Structure formats: structure tokens, C-alpha cells
Amino acid sequence: GGIDIPYPFGIGSDGDCALPFYNIDCNNKKPFYRDVEVLSISLQLGQIRVSTPISSSCYNPFSKRMYSSGWGFNLSYTPFMLSDSNKFTVVGCQSLAYISDPTSNYTSGCASSCPGGKVVSATNSTCFGIGCCQITIPRGMEFCKVSFGESMNTSGIYEHTPCSYAAIMDYSNFTFSTSNLTSLLEFNNTYSGRAPVKFDWAIWGPRDCVEAQKNLTSYACKSDHSVCLNYSSGAKSAYMCNCSKGYHGNPYLQGSNGCEGKICL
Fold it and tell me: Which of 17, 78, 151, 234 has the fewest Cβ atoms within 10 Å of its own Cβ atom?
């Protein structure tokens, strides 16, 4: 898939190629973590960018019923959690969608409407409740579910806005367009039915750098020019590795494959 997969990630189930839970599978020449496609991996930021399904709610004029699709994920017992660089995004003229974490009783909603049911009231690149809404997401969510409010339906406006959409997505990759409302599939097709999402990742087990360095055998920052950084999301405590200032490369590897090439400024 043309994606760099740096250690501690690795392809396949061979324990020598990756740390536990960092295995990437190949499916049709594309990298996947479990059932989501991997778009990129950042060692410096401690993030992995993946592609996740877009949920939809559409009115069927023949059956006179609303049909909705939800989606969710469970990152418990993995090194990953939802990054707060994502936003919960809802597109539609009569939409109410929820994001929830059943394990922590967290629930938040986002409502999008168009005054008079007319798309003309929405504005391109504006996502503040008219035709589109976005809300921030708490850092560190491990269990997440997306669903639509059952009380909302588009039976009266389906000829103008046939569907509503909801997705967790990297907000830097989204710009609202009013044509997202009038086309049955434009929003969905723009991202091929899947939205880009960022997961944070770190090295789990030890709760911080001090504890991790007590066991140098399992300590993940292997390069001589690496530094350890504490990571805390509220749900988990862990650590991650970076190259020391002025160095570049992979802090999880030793020797010439690790951090090297100090740059003089």
C-alpha cells in the first residue's frame, strides 16, 4: 500500500518483527490493524492514522422508513486510544447523532438542522449547527459507539436532503460543502465510505519512564540517542520514545537503524 511500517510495528504475527499488539496484517496489498485500514504511522507524534466507516441515516420513500447504520470500536487491551485531534462530525438538515462510551457512561450528541428544511441556509466551510456540526472528543477514549437519534427523520425533506451522516474524523481533513446535503452519496463517496481517524499509541505496561527504565531488557527506547516521554490519557498511563534533539530516525531501534545524524544549527 506504499505505507511505511516502522518498528515497533511489524507485518504479520511473527513476534520478532513487532512488539506485542503492534502487528499489521496485509489484505489485498494494503496494511490493516484488525479490521481498519492503516493510512500512516508517526513515531514522533505517537499516532496511527486509520480509515473507519461513516455512519448514515436515510429515508426510504418506498418503505416510508428511516434506515440507519451505526459503528463502533473497542481498543481495550490494545496500545491505542482515540486522539483528541479528531472531532465527531454530523452532516444533515435534520440530524441528531450520538457518540458514547458504554464503559464510562460518557455520551455526547451533535445536532444539525437547516431552518425551514432548506439547504440554502447552510454555508460552505461552516460547521456550527446549520447543515453540519462538530464537537470535540475527550482524549483517551478506548470504547466508542456512533448512533443516530430515533426521533429524527427526513421524511418531509428527503427530496432535498436524502441522508444524514455521522463520523469520527481527523478534523484537519474535513471541509463542509453544501453539496454534502443535496447529494445522496457525495459525503460518503468523498472518503470512499470511510473517514480518516487518528489513534494515539504508546508503550504500555510500565506506568511511566521511571518504572520502564528499571528493566532495561524490556525498555523500548533502544537507541543511544533516544529520550523517554511520559504519556497519560486519563484512562491509561504509559510512555513513548523520541529521538534526542538534533537527531532523527527510530528511537525504538539500536545502532545505525536508530536515532542518528545529529544536525548542527
Answer: 151
